[in-house]
Amino acid sequence: MMSSNNRPKSITSLKLKITVVLILILSAVSATVFSVINLSYLEENYLYANGAPTTILPILAITSVALAVIGTSFVKKSDYSVKELPSDRTSMIYMLSLFFVALFLAIFVLYVMHGAFDIGYGISIKGNADLMEKLETATLFYQIMIILSPIAPIYFLVMSFKRKTSSFFGTLTLLWILAYILRTYFDITDWVMSPRKLSMLCAMCFAALFILYEVRFSFARGNIRRYFFMSAITTVFCFSAGLTGVISSVLGVYPSSFEIPYYGVAFALGLYAAIRLCSIAFAVSEKEVNAENQINNESYKSEKSEENEENENGAKGTENV
Predict the structure, then answer these.
(1) Average pLDDT, the chain
(2) Between 254 and 34, where is the model more confident?
(3) pLDDT per residue over 117-172, tens digit each?
(4) What residues contact residue 196 under an 8 Å CB cut-off, 6+ apart?
(5) pLDDT tens for residues 270-292?
(6) pTM of the entire structure?
(7) What is the pLDDT averaged over residues 37-53?
(8) Terminus of the chain with fewer CB atoms < 10 Å: N or C?
(9) pLDDT surpasses 50 at 2
(10) What are phi and psi of 126, to 5 degrees?
(11) Are the C-beta atoms of residues 56 and 38 closer than 8 Å to each other?
């Protein structure tokens, strides 16, 4: 039998694991704080009106970047492949990929059912030529999003079955995220400095960079340190912006219910990045895994050999009797 000393060992330090845990805690705290601030808006509290979200956003950015930089310094580039992602949580990614499918299909179905372009706070511009002209650019990117919505989640389904990324489907997912960013940016129905708009723009910009660095692994040009950094930032911003958006929409802080699937996508991207972050932090050395397999094979052969010898000795003893 294999001794405990021969089991595969983690190639990451305790410091990296602690940093990842702190990043996950920061994500949860950020989502809670932003949700409380948004709910205070309903109670006519001045936290929201006095710009608390836009004050906290830079603090969140500085803290998350600091933790990401600290964690990156603990990642040894030589321990990871430039072709494959460290991932031992494929079942979690598979369940999350189904969540992505449901969200993207909801975006597509809502458009088909209503037959109109709803933007910002759910303002319909169907038949409104003046508003349509003002939102012409945003309309274009919205239509691109709708076209890509049934295709975008395929990337996550592919990722749930293999460690290598798909450059083709990854590019389509990246295009959907970019279309969402541009659609939101050119949406004149929402205040340009709106905390909701700023938090989602920041979250999706980081998500785009995260997917870009992930797709690079399909070209054997992956950089685990940069990927770790973007995973950390994406986890914090997407998780907090997405969860806050869902809670605020359900409780009526945000008037439009049409935006809930988009917040859901941001939240799911945050969870996906968190899973990747944990995969890096708790990765095991391939050399150690190969050593474990070799030891298991040798142990199996040894046990088989001993069993054969015992059978032969037993057969000889029977013949002598």
Answers:
(1) 77
(2) 34
(3) 555 544 555 555 666 666 777 778 888 888 999 999 999 888 877 666 778 899 99
(4) 190, 245, 248, 254
(5) 999 999 888 888 776 554 555 55
(6) 0.79
(7) 59
(8) C
(9) no
(10) -65, 125
(11) no
Distance CA 170, CA 162 (A): 14
Note whether 85 and 214 are within 8 A (CB): yes
Q: Which amino acid is at 258?
A: F
Helix axes 260-281, 90-114, angle to 10 degrees: 170
Written as six digits, the tokens of 211 are 């997917």
The model's confidence at residue 258, banded by pLDDT at 50, 70 and 90, is confident
- Return the number of other C-beta atoms located less than 10 Å from residue 208's C-beta: 21
Band the pLDDT of 5: cuts 50, 70, 90.
very low
Q: Are strands 118-119 and 123-124 parallel, antiparallel or unpaired?
A: antiparallel
